[in-house]
Amino acid sequence: MTPPSPLTSRRAAKPPGRSSSTANPAPAWRRPLAWTDHHYLALGYLGLSFIAVAVGTLLSLAMRIHRVWPTGSLLGASVSPEQYLALVTMHGTLMIFFVLTVAPQSGFANLVLPGQLGSKDMALPLVNATGFWITALALMIMLAAFFVPAGAPIGGWSAYPPLSAMPAAGPGQGSGMDLWLASLAIFCIGSTLGAVNTVVTVARCRCPGLTYGRLPLTVWSWLTAALLTILVFSVLFAAIILLSCDRHLGTAFFVPSTQWVNGVVTHRSGDGSPLLWLHLFWFFGHPEVYIAVLPGMGLVSMLLGNFTRRRIPGYRMMIATTMLIGGLGILVWGHHMFVAGLNPFAGTAFELTTMAIALPSAAKVLNWLVILWRSRPRFDTPMLWALGFVSVFVCGGLSGPILAQPALDAYLHNTFFVVAHFHLIMAMAAIFGIFAGIAYWFPLITGRALHERLGKIHFWWTLFFAYSTFLPMHLTGLAGEPRHYAQLDGIAGTAGALVRSTLPLERHITVSAILLGLGQLLWIVNVLHSWTRGTPASGNPWNATTIEWAPETPAGCTLVCEHEPCHYEQISASPITGDAKPHPQWAFEVSAE
Amino acid sequence: MPAILHPNEVEQRPKRRYDEGDTGGGRLPPVDPKHTGGGGDNDNWNNQPQGSRGPRERLLRYRLGVFFALGGDLMFFIALVSAFFVSKHSGHFDASARWINPWLPIEIPAILWLNSAFLLFSSLTVEFARRAMFHDIDVLEEWLGLGHPTRKRVLPWLGASIFLGGLFIWGQLLAWSQLRLQRASFADNPSTHFFYLITGVHGVHLVLGIVFLIAAFIGMRTIRSVESRQILVDCSAWYWHSMGVFWVFLFALLVYGQ
User: Fold this and answer.
1) What is the ipTM, given to two decimal places?
2) A25 exposed, middle or buried (CB, 10 Å; 0-12, 13-18, 19+)?
């Protein structure tokens, strides 16, 4: 770490962010009536995510324990099959919407987007705050779904009809499902407002000199994810309205005209099809996973450049791949529907688009490898998380082209192979991105650094047990272990023997998952400790080049951007071993003379 | 040095490092255009920090935000229209292997034509209100505190828009009751599903628009900042126009698409 200069040490004592006027010396936290302040909203979003991730993790552990110990009881209560499915549903929903969407996209963007643009605040603070409170309301409603008399919702995170369209269809389809739908509808509005704010901020609040070609890749990924959010969340909103009509107003958008539910035959006018819901849902659902993972990809590019002290090669190409991943991401939704009765010709088309998206993704991975090639990175914790991201992204991504083949997917789709795939490429990658972001920007928020050694132990623990949890799922999946089964033993016949044969590996997975969960306590301890008693960090502890680390603008000066991020000058003779002098993006020009 | 630093200008200008002693001496004297007409210090909005660069900065942000949000809203209606066409062509085989398509087109109540005329008219009135909000001399007088000329111009047009919008909603409800009298209710047929759904969700959008217009109407008297008033009227008006355009397409779909 560099010794603190007068400028940087003044900054370090003053969390968070940089206010360009010196008129108000109070930290952003303590200013009165600043409830629209993006720092607060960022912490609010991260807090929502923390609640959701804590609940979601406990749910997943309950699922894991139940899978290998179906007759046992957790805290005195045994888990019935429908309760198991409710656990699956709530785990997926909380994690995907309230953790993987909220933290990287809304949390981090609110935290550092204005800083990276050299702007004081987001463009539309009021809209921003409204979006946050709407999201908070959505989380409250979602959590309330646990406690309704008819039981928590059952339907996975995708709530397929016809079950989800008929409240009488069984447990978990009643008021719990209504709350689930209401929560997500509200979430759609909240995230659209947040995304509009992000897009307008990028479009209108860049400091002089910060052209689109010089925007940090984090900004590009937030921008792409925000555009995707605006385009696809409204489609989910429309689908939820249609489904709610099916549930309560007797329409037949997603259900056939005649249904036999719990021994009762009912008729509706119309020949709806569950496939229509699948199309609408996955038109949203696939871009949603890119909304979750793109911010992590942008951050990883920046971190690799930062910690190897190297330029990012092909900078414009990296911007292009970000946009391409976003654009192609809208065209691949059908690959979730290969085994749902999709027309095989459509399946071929979606196979091609899905294979096509592997190209920009692979370009990104190769770019990361080029940055790393023969470099001597500084292995600080954020860098470790970034490398971990690359690792799990590659590992999870390799099974993507396999699942993109309709013929292979027909075998694998309903097995744990898919669970392994998306937990690695989306869940773990995005979570690693979140950990990287928190470790990297922690000094910016608090003026103190996270404890390095504890952070490193936490990283290696998480990496090891993440792989130990999710890699074996490929094997159990290949062995035929189905998804969504509450219980693996007690099934008669050959199929039962096949499923039972996965139990030893299943036990291993459960133990790993519990250890993975326990390891996160290290992180909590680290954050709580470092927030109050951590080592004070200098103003720019990572020798970063992006503008959020710029010192306070001197009076009478304007902050301008001079070039792309990650410009470093090699000062030692050997380009490999020496550290390098950063040429930050920012400069101060004397404004009006 | 030039007072305005647009991104591409900064990119093209030779780099000057103040910390290396290059203060720009030895070059041509800087040309400093005064866009604001003033001549004193610090009166050039472009020299101000972001967020305080003159009366249009916040307005343009909000307007851009409304356009992006409306882009999302467009996707919402596209999703509904896609479902419309899927439903229209869906059917099943009955016991004797005949293809049964239950879609029965309904006759569109004639009052919808009148309603559409009201809505188009309201778009005109709201545009008059919006333009009156930017009438230079009036805005200047109001900004200087010399009376309320914009309010006098804008309020009647806003009132007329709210009235016409209310007429539209009332007409839509009338169309619904007419259909119900003919025993065509929401759950009767796929076509009625969509008729009620499309008119319904568009109606909800319009009610929201009326709320915005009423807020603008009240805001014209209560909000102190001229710019905030402009933002409220301007964004409500753009939203209202978009709902009018959406309605033209949705109405065409209901009339000709069934």
Assistant:
1) 0.90
2) exposed
